[in-house]
């Protein structure tokens, strides 16, 4: 048994991490544009405004904005069937609340999609990927304010109307549960202190509504379009077979899957209601919200997968999403870790696929999976990243088992990432994920020249064989 004949192989990026050109084409600033550089030891910081004496890695990123033809040509050389990317909201509505979209921004993505389709590459498009308009954050405190529902729906309708003949698969919000770790970065919410979680869950309710309205609009207007949710892949094992560790694991997973439960089932289930009540989260809702959610259930579930955790009766993983910083027990069976402390668990992707399909009975799409580590550019321009090949191979093997042995329907697989880009968590370039090396360092120096890694040629063979070649 093998992968389905129409399986979508490809790679992924995000606008804020690859495009650059942060103030070109009448684009407005977003929450990503005030993110400074960080390091392996230090997370990024977010400023109120753009300050002259600070380095903002996303401002240039890897300059996909001016290199998209070259980059997509390289994706085509690898044989990509699809390319998962995002649209920058502030390229289309610079402040987020304008009456009419920015034609320069719309034309840019027309050009990108046309370039993809020229090579037979299907775009998979996220509407929001850590990219809230800064104006809406400053004026409304981001998604805490219900007004953002209407602004986002206007934006979503504008781009779906424009690109519905070019884009079949859409994702409303990237890693929607990641708001727990980065409320400003992800949602434009600056609240701190005791009300932080209350505001996050209120903001998430507004995102649920916005997503549901986009789904209904797409289904009503363009029936061939598929709209999905995306989950930041937090997957946990019980640390031991002690019954209380098993219960702790169930509770930890329920806290994370709260988000996809609402988007996939179209309602807050009993677990969610009890969770909100026990944590004194009082959501402000309108009478029509229940019907809105029910009519806006997603068509498929996309997710990222990098690691697994261990739940214990003795520790509370809590609501933090940063894997290496979570209050998780060590898994004694996982000895390998990345330089950033992420444990490597290829079998976990099979566990993740089964867990999600058992719960939701929806088609799944692995839209992020990859190894972030150091690469070395040799004098002859080669990059020997056999460790990335080994990582990707092992995950594909386990994904194939989930499809062929377990009966899990998987639409496709897009690695994180297609090309080296700015790290979302730290702003580093040295934490490299791509099959294509970009000559740029953590301080912004470099030529931006692209180089094919050994993994580039290996992944090309994988795609050409539809996952049969894995040597």
Task: Provide a quick synopsis of the model.
This protein has helices at 15-18, 64-78, 89-92, 103-118, 134-140, 147-163, 183-187, 196-221, 243-265, 270-278, 289-294, 347-360, 386-404, 454-464; strands at 8-12, 82-86, 122-128, 169-173, 226-231, 236-238, 300-304, 309-311, 364-368, 410-416, 436-438, 450-452. With 471 residues, the protein is α/β, with parallel strands linked by helices. The protein has a single domain (8-464), classed as TIM Barrel (Alpha-Beta Barrel), CATH 3.20.20.80.
Question: How does this structure look, described?
Answer:
The chain is of the alpha/beta class and 471 residues long. The protein is 37% helix and 12% strand. It is built from 14 helices and 12 strands. Helix 2 (64-78) packs parallel to helix 4 (103-118). The longest helix is centred in the middle third of the chain and has 26 residues, at 196-221.
